[in-house]
Amino acid sequence: MLAAISAKVLDPQFMLAAATAVCVTATLYTLALPFFSGDGLKRRMKAVSVERDRIRARERERLNEQGRRASLRQEPKAYMKDLVQRFSLRDWLGTDTAKLRLSMAGYRGPQAEVAFLFFRFVSPIVFALAAGLYVFTMQAGQPVMLKIGAVILGAYIGIKAPEIYLKNTITKRQKSLRRAFPDGLDLMLICVESGMAIEGAFRKVSQEIGAQSVALAEELLLTTAEMSYLPERRQAFENLASRTGLDSVKGVCTALIQAERYGTPIATALRVLGQEFRDQRMNTAEKMAAGLPPKLTVPMILFFLPVLFVVIMTPALIQVFKWS
């Protein structure tokens, strides 16, 4: 059998026929491959488009769900409304500053104002009663003046508690706005340069930026609604700047107002402001990186150096005690 195989391999006619068969098969495979393989790039692009649409639909559904949970037109609860109206809390607790801070925190409508006034009235009483119950029952041996001072301190904490909560909410919301606003500004610049009007650009950016910052999407969508029914766009831009309380947003709103008043190109102003905000974000990151060494000094002294000394000195002490 080996002799037959060797004879076939050494036969020139057999080798020529085999080479011809291989070449014909390769040619037929090359010609038939495009008809059976299909467009791989088209399939990948279609898969990416479907996945993008699915993610976008999911994020919009999540944004709509959050909007339904925190609707701008919720009615105040009955017992809160009755308490606010009975004691006329709007006259001596409600101020324009509180309303502005509520809007900056994302709480709008009658429900937010009534809830804030209710908790601002009830929380000092609750904290004072809790402090009095603790000091007069658990700490019965303490002086009376100390107990009265604890009750007064509890009432003061109750007065400041709603304001502290509101301040923390504003800080978190502004952090989300500050982080997502440069990207939103770049998207707005792309929309404006593509020929869209400023209303369409705001609406489009509000739809796309929701996955990164719900607060920014909500503010842009509210501004779009205001531009549709307010007599002047300037009022909508000023309301956006006052609701956010950020200098970067105020700068963009001022540039948009001036561009509308004097007819200057909006795209140029947005491009300059976008580059400025990117540089500012980079400077902030560099400043935070430069501040790490001083912040790490105390943890290193308290935690790293003792462990390092233990690791270095323990073998030496073992040897000393072993030979002593």
Note down, in words, how this protein is organized.
Helix content is 86%, strand content 0%. With 324 residues, the protein is an all-alpha fold. The protein is extended, with a radius of gyration of 35 Å. The protein starts with a helix and ends with a helix.
Shape: extended
Q: Give the H and E element order.
A: HHHHHHHHHHHHHH
Structural class: mainly alpha
Q: Helical residue percent?
A: over 70%
Largest sheet: none
Compute the average pLDDT. 78
Low-confidence stretches: 69-73
The count of β-strands is 0
Beta-strand residue percentage: under 5%
* Number of contiguous helices: 14
From the alpha carbons, calculate the radius of gyration and give it in angstroms.
Answer: 35 Å
Reconstruct the topology from this structure.
Layout: H1 2-10, H2 12-37, H3 40-69, H4 78-86, H5 89-92, H6 96-104, H7 109-137, H8 144-193, H9 198-208, H10 214-229, H11 233-244, H12 247-262, H13 266-290, H14 292-323
Question: In short, what is this structure?
Answer:
With 324 residues, the chain is mostly helical. It is built from 14 helices and no strands.
Keywords:
324 residues; mainly alpha; 14 helices; 86% helix; 0% strand
